[in-house]
Amino acid sequence: MWTLGVTQKHFGLTQEIQGCATTLEDLGRIRKTITKEAQNMLPLLGEWKGQVAPGIPLLGRRGQLFFWSPFDGVLLPNQQLPSSSSNYNLCISGMSGSGKSFLCNELITTTLSVGGKAFVLDKGESFKKLCHILGGHHLDFDVTTNISLNPFTHIPEGDNGDDLIERSEQLGALLQVVKTMAIPRGEISEIQESFLLEAIDHAWEQKKSQAELDDLYQYLLHHKDPRAQDLAKTLRLYSKGGAYGSFFNGPATLNLGHDLVVIETQNLKDNLKAVIVQMMMVHAWQRMTRSDRSYPYLILIDEAWELIQGKSSGAFIEKVVRTARKYRASLTLATQNLTDYFKPESPGATVAFQNSEWKAVLHQSADVTTSLHHHPQLQELVNNSYRESLIRSLGKAEKFSEIAFYSNSVGGVIGRLACDPWSTLLYSSNPQDYLKVQEGLKQGLSVAETIDAVLDSQEKLG
Fold it and tell me: For a 10 Å CB count at each end of the chain, is N or C smaller?
């Protein structure tokens, strides 16, 4: 209570109540004035106090400590705290060295710390160390990987209401992936889409969850319409006799049972990347629908604009973002530049940006910030001098990284993320830090032992 103290008398006894401002008065920082003069000195400025749920701890530029998470009021299991978020989806943008990987790592650890799950599509091993430390499952995916991603395996066969809804949603999502397989770059016609849907329906009717991609190929190959036969030719790569057939036939063997699953995509061929990424997301979606909705579920895609390319990716991502909320899930995408979300070759990233409640912006180059003035979807971020100066003020990460948060209820709040030395080395994607950790791993040390050793050597060097 900001008062100089009040003296009260009760039954002849005097009681003095001291206020918090008495110490300031002793220091000569207080002066008495009339009420109207104090009113003219308002308003008093204060920083955003953050969310009720204990998410990532951040600091405002004036020192205000606050918590933030894209899950907002549903971060804590079995609780529904006050929230203004329409969904829990997030789009992150920050140049190299801005602290983007630090924020993503913190999102993962925060989600897991409350009992949630995280599925991560990585590019460049930004999350490999964290995965090993937390006992997650890390898979470095390339063309030699012995694994099946057959999307039919985990589609529910039941006839109750929930199974019927989930089956319809998952078969619809599968159609978008098959469209990417058949026509990876160009536009697909209505008749071509109808043939693919017909093949999917036939495979499900005949074999249910035992179906596989080869069933679609065989159905189209023996179709009486030559246009369907042409589609079969484009799907041959994914049939049992095709170069990539082993990934999509036979029962699915992808293990998503761990609380944290990280898939490294750096070694995937470009012509296979979009298909594999979307198929991985189908499996993540299937796990999401089978999960306990009491806990948060994070799906994180790094370098998203590159990983979800393809004309059909927009429709696929739209299905994910529109259904994620009811499963307490967040689709989180990360890119280097804000404009990456609107590249024509990646409509999926555009759809995700348009359907995300939260945007987290880190350091952007001066050229990118200037270009926002002419970008129809992003010009709102710089539509006045204050907003533009806010984005330009976001510096590269040194002792801390700065993040500007935007949502329907928050119009550009800056939070500083500062990590301890141990976490800094764990999260860092800096080439020098990476080499130090790799050297320890080559010597047979664990990730934790390597980090301890590196920090010990730095301390000895002063």
Answer: C
Statement: residue 2 has pLDDT above 60: no
Residue 359 has pLDDT above 50, yes or no: yes
Residue type, 299: I
Contact 249, 218 (CB under 8 A): no
Other CB atoms closer than 10 Å to residue 146's CB: what's the count? 7
Checking if the pLDDT of 305 tops 60, the result is yes
Per-residue confidence (pLDDT) for residue 291, from 0 to 100: 78
Among 130, 76, 75, 131, smallest CA distance to 419 is for 130
Strand order in the sheet with 137-140: 65-68, 56-59, 411-417, 401-406, 358-361, 90-93, 329-335, 297-302, 117-122, 260-264, 137-140
| Amino acid, res. 19 | G
Residue 358, SS3?
Answer: strand
| Dist CA 162 CA 69 (whole Å) | 29
Length of the chain: 462
DSSP state of 238: G
Q: What integer pLDDT is reported at residue 7 of this predicted model?
A: 57
Nearest to 210 by CA among 168, 154, 131: 154
Can you give the pTM of this predicted structure? Answer: 0.84
Round to whole Å and give the CA distance between 357 and 346: 20
